[in-house]
Amino acid sequence: MLVLVYFAVVLVMVNMGNSLERLELRGDPDTGFYLDVSIGTPPVLLRLLVDTGSSNLVVAGPTQTTGRKFNPKQSRTFHNASKKVAIEYSQGKFSGYMGYDRVLLGSLTLNNVSVAIIETSVNFFSDITDWQGILGIGYDSLLKPSPNGIQSVYTAIQQEYNISDLFSMKLCPARDVFGDTVVPSGGELILGGTDDSHHHGNYMYTPIVKEQFYNVLLSNISIAGTMLPLECSELNRDSTIVDSGTSDIYINEVMFDAIVKILKEKCKEDPDFNVTDSFWSGNEQLAWRIGNNDLYDMFPDIILYFPLYNNQSLQFGVKVPPQLYLRQVAPLHYDSFNLPCGDDCDFFVFGIKSRSTGIILGSDLLTGYDVIYDRKNLRIGFAPTTCELRDNRPSSSQPELIGPEMRDTVDCSYSTSSSTKPGIYGIVLTTAITLSMVLLILILLLYIVHCRHNKRVHHTESMERLRDDFNDDNHSDQSFVISPTEEAGPPTKQSLAYVESKKVKKSTPIAAETRRDTSNSLMVH
Prior knowledge:
Blueprint (H helix, E strand, L loop, with lengths): L1 H16 L3 E8 L3 E8 L4 E8 L5 E4 L18 E10 L4 E13 L2 E15 L10 E4 L16 H9 L4 E5 L16 E5 L12 E4 L2 E2 L2 E2 L4 E4 L2 E2 L4 H4 L4 E3 L6 E4 H15 L9 H4 L5 E4 L12 E7 L2 E10 L1 H4 E4 L15 E6 L1 E4 L3 E3 L1 H4 L2 E6 L4 E6 L16 E6 L16 H48 L18 H36 L1
Parallel strand pairs: 3-8, 4-7, 16-24, 17-23
Antiparallel strand pairs: 1-2, 1-10, 2-3, 2-6, 4-8, 5-6, 6-7, 9-10, 9-25, 11-26, 12-13, 14-15, 14-19, 17-24, 18-22, 19-20, 20-27, 21-22, 25-26
Helix pairs in contact: 8-9
């Protein structure tokens, strides 16, 4: 009997360790992907943005203007932690306070979970968002105000239910752009595993290089079949993260300029296709007639290359076709636009943005792939999604994995830059300034030594002349005190005046020159 009980307990533990929790995801890259979460007693149902770029559970408090909100005073299980919190995201920020309460997530029940209540916010919510908070599923090191005494929802699930330390996300965008109807997207967050029906082919993995954000490395980027002439350290300046909570693909300024330059040249191949600079900068939408199916053929593929997990002498490519980086959106001014296509237009924005440093691979890219975040083995995997993309125009290119293939085995790691200038220019500038300062100091030291040497020489000559003038046997010490009416007086005074004038002529220019050099040195600093 004891043996049977033992095996039953082991079987239950194994099943718990291998269990999956499947949570429906809805939304689109423009407004974000969210799931339903209930908080408090009685439970309040909220829609929370799923964010791999943060770790806090954050909900709209009673002061917010969102449709749904959470009032801690109405929850019997809420406990105030008496701790303030303020978090700034890549888009928006908030301040509020921390507490603990009961959380229902799918079939999972979690007690005393850390929750941040928003009191004030800036650019956090918008008119088009349909969620009232954030569910961060990053590493606990990102928790605010600090990890001490605070626990993420993900960690609480790990401890309570012993689910495997990995999850996968299939982000399927809703197909109704204008939001008139709710169209099930088929997206899903799977805690503890993945589903082969969510992707085509097998995953290709790249290492997680830092357990904070989901930090990865880029090894190369190609566009229209041409590799960007950038070093690996330039590609990964500061960090490269996979972030489901950000819509766009953000890249550093050097990469952005290089990519846009190639895109502009590609678009110029058709003289009738006019794309303005305002479109590339994100300040203008591109209108395209419905039924005109050659849009995506006007733009080339972009391929992001990553080092292969467990064999970093190889790399694989994640293709970003035009239907991923051209994001279909609602028009900015639907009632006022005046276009040849009238109401028969679709509207698009450029889904790649520039930032000073660092790369964020947002949901524009992630909607094309089923992504697995394997925290246990420190790796992230990509596989082409089975979702229908938001725009159903035909395209000769689809999300696809390239390789694996050989790559240059260089030291590919993050470089840190406090300047917005490209790394190579910053190095050259710093080196030039340093060498100039060293050279200036050497010149100044040599000049001072030279001046002191001349001063000693002239001083010696003056003393010798003084001794010659007063070293007469007949006018030894009395030459300084004899009366002007005496015969020796005039020559003696002339000698003294001569020595004093020599001192003035030599000492004054030296001091002046020294001040000028010192002033120039300070100006260089």
